[in-house]
Amino acid sequence: MKTDPPPIAWRAAMLVVLVALPFLIAALLVGPPAPRAAERARQGFVGSTTCATCHAAEAAAWRDSDHARAMGAATPTNVLGDFSGVSIVDGRHTATFLRDGERYVIRTDGPDGTVADFVITETFGVDPLQQYLVLFPDGRRQALPWAWDSRSREQGGQRWFHLAANDPLPATDPLHWTGREQTWNFMCASCHSTGLERGYDATTDRYATTWTEISVGCESCHGPGAAHVAWAQAGARNDDPHRGLSTWLRDRSGGAWRFAADDPRGIARWEGPPRQSTPAQVETCAPCHARARPLVPDPSPGGRFLDTHAPMLLERGEYHADGQIQGEVFEWGSFAQSRMSRAGVVCADCHDPHRGTLRAEGNAVCAQCHLPARFDTAEHHRHAPGSAAAQCVSCHMPAVTYMGVDRRRDHAFSIPRPDVAAQIGARDTCTTCHIGRPQSWAARHIVEWFGPRRRDDPHPALAIAAGRDGRPGADALLAALATNRAHAPILRATAVSLLPMPPSPATAQAIGATLLDPDPLVRAAALRTLDGLHPRNRLHAARFLADETRLVRIEAARALAPVPLDALPEAARPAFTRAWDELLASERVAAERPEAHVNIAGLLAARGDMAGAEAAYRDALARDATHLGALVNLADFEARRGRQDAAEAALRRAVAAHPREAEAHHALALALARQGRAADALAPLAEAAGLRPDEPRYAYVQAIALNQLRRTEEAAAVLRANIARHPRHRDSLIALATIERDRANLVEAERLAAEAAALNPTDREAAALLAQLRALRQRLPGMR
User: Fold this and answer.
1) Which UniProt keywords apply (predicted)?
2) CA pair distance 714, 703, nearest whole angstrom
3) pLDDT of residue 32
């Protein structure tokens, strides 16, 4: 699992995507801990060795699995890489891999940039690559950027490679291997070890992380086994239907997928006891196979996913608008979109849960539920039988390569739609194989084979793409998707999250409907939309403070943060207090992250606790004195308290630390403008616009400032350039139309206003400006 940073994270994580704080100790030879120093007993856990005494077959299958080898001590048995003294230089990075007796050592640049020797303490993963960890004196385990390609030589493996070969990553960069974005303890530990306790001490900023097993053992999935052992030792009485296990995973028992003779679709149906609407197997696998933010510390197996984690929705840059994987998002977010998920399919229907392998080879795994006579034919897949292209996964589970060599398949099991992909600017599985062919060619063939009408029209991707880009009519498209319960909850929740604010009639109606949705992920997303409303319009959230799902409760508390307690119904006040505590506790799960303290500061400030907010900002900056999000938010906090000098000082620190970040320059400019120093704001505004030409608001604000200083021609030039890059940027169109109106260029002004009005037929301001300009032209026909 890659755990998401708290919501205000300012820089995307990469590589293994971990988190850490700066080190006080410079380059040094770090010795390994005492054997098994991090392993200790945890109440209720008995270890996989104990399980194996009764479950020998399962244990034997597990021992060869990637789960069993998810992490290991750096011993000759576990280390796959070449540590024979080989040196690697890729143009930006250098490392030498050595043996020092029984120790494995890497010689590379350390926390202060000085080259030194670092002892490998653990291996991390095994196939198709293996990474290595270094234990530092403050308890942090840092993941090295050099990985061993464990594939065969014939596949291009058996070599060292750098996971960010094109990025120099100096020691001051948080993404440097010793920086806070690469710490194993917070991001990776819980999914690579069993019975893990992170052991972070916020007072000393140190870790004492421990586990009951170094790798992913039986109790990672089945939960603590002590009660099960007691049940077995007591004679395996049948009075406990779950046999002492906190996690009961037998979703496959008591039934089977069978084909109905009269079903022309050729798709199997489940015959047996009804499966849960959210099967325990999927809930158990989700925390480690999803991009998600933990809501509780060290969650144990057996809890409901949305009680312990807040999963990522289909966010831009991580998923294409049609739901295809893009960033390193793992499997759950894709599977949650699928028809398989809604039909009750669980992970173990396709995967052997102990070996981690597929239950059958090739198309045979799909043939369990998809009749070969209907689907494994040239009439269906349109490729030569037996060829790679005739494999079900080739069309329905396209792969993306992460970390250089790790090909992972999309688990949405989607139907290829090159026509939709062309509209949203995404890849499609057809032209990914048929390189050089346009998407229109692929779409035309699919129409010839299967006809023009498709079962999934109108495709959800069109609404999501429209919402992401702020296109005309996006609110209605998103509202329709959000309220259509035939679609997967993750799709509907994503649609809710994209609803434009302030709400249109369609948007407001959709929010009201999705607040009452039976799926908690949709309810939680609907509650987040209330952040865009005035506090007096957020009282609807009060009824969700006692929701059965933790994620919904904390989002209700977040929405009500600026609402005074005495404004809530009296009966809801105790529930608010409990949900508020859960919300703050969920943020403190990431106490080692500066972003967590920025979030806490914002919440406390919304409640009027200025002293608490100020302390939280201090905590954030104590963890990273140059953190951009902390400095920018602190500046806004100080400005709202009337402390303009303090706000400016924080922003100048931000600019000095992040000279290439447009947001720092932009925030400084706005702070100067609020002080009446518009002329001083021009330079940082220009800098922000130059750094981020892809973000139209920076150039727009620059033009507004120029126009206010009566440098109208310069303002118009900036707006024209911005519109050339972003022809659909509504505010720039309105601003330039207004300038041209004031300069009596009515024809050009009317053209610009018409373009702005066409973007959104409900835009009253654009419509009013257009009507005004047309009236002026009628009264003054001689005006150009």
Assistant:
1) Signal
2) 8
3) 42
Residue with tokens 């009966």: 571
Is the Cα torsion angle 462, 468, 469, 472 positive or negative in sign?
Answer: positive
Distance CA 429, CA 208 (A): 46
The per-residue pLDDT for range 6-58, each reduced to its tens digit, is: 544 333 333 333 323 222 233 334 444 434 458 888 889 999 999 999 999 99
For residues 387 and 404, the answer to whether their CB atoms sit within 8 Å is: no
Residues 750, 771: Cα–Cα separation, whole Å: 9
Our measurement of the distance from residue 421's CA atom to the centroid of its chain's CA atoms, rounded to an integer in Å, reads: 22
Per-residue confidence (pLDDT) for residue 1, from 0 to 100: 52
- Block residue for tokens 């498209």: 477
Mean predicted lDDT score pLDDT of the chain: 91
CATH number of the 693-784 domain: 1.25.40.10
Q: What is the pLDDT of residue 372?
A: 93
How do beta strands 2-3 and 291-294 pair? Answer: parallel
Q: Average pLDDT for residues 159-185, to the nearest whole number?
A: 91
* Whether 153 contacts 160, CB under 8 Å: no
Global pTM reads 0.90
Structure tokens at 158: 């058996």
Calculate mean pLDDT across residues 116-122. 97
Q: List the one residue out of 607, 578, 583 whose CA is nearest residue 596.
A: 583
CB-based contact 333:254 (threshold 8 Å): no
pLDDT tens figures, 523-570: 999 999 999 899 999 999 999 999 999 999 999 999 999 999 999 999
Query: Environment class of residue 754 by beta-carbon count within 10 Å: exposed (0-12), middle (13-18) or buried (19+)?
Result: middle
Confidence of residue 253 (pLDDT cuts 50, 70, 90): low
CA distances (Å), origin 574, targets 55, 295, 383, 570, 645: 47, 21, 63, 8, 40
Domain extent listing, the chain: 2-219, 279-374+383-435, 693-784
- 103: enclosing H helix or E strand: strand 103-109
**281-288 mean pLDDT:** 92
Residues whose CB is less than 8 angstroms from the CB of residue 521 and which lie 6 or more positions away in sequence, other chains included: 306, 311, 489, 490, 493, 551
Q: Which residues pair with 207 in a beta bridge?
A: 200
Contact (CB, 8 A) for 302 and 287 = no
Residue type, 152: S
Q: Which residue blocks in 418-488 are alpha helix, DSSP H? A: 418-424, 429-433, 439-450, 460-469, 474-482
Count CA within 13 A, CB hemisphere, residue 765. 8
Strands 129-135 and 256-258: unpaired
Residue 358 identity (one-letter amino acid): L
401 CB-near residues (< 8 Å, 6+ apart): 407, 408
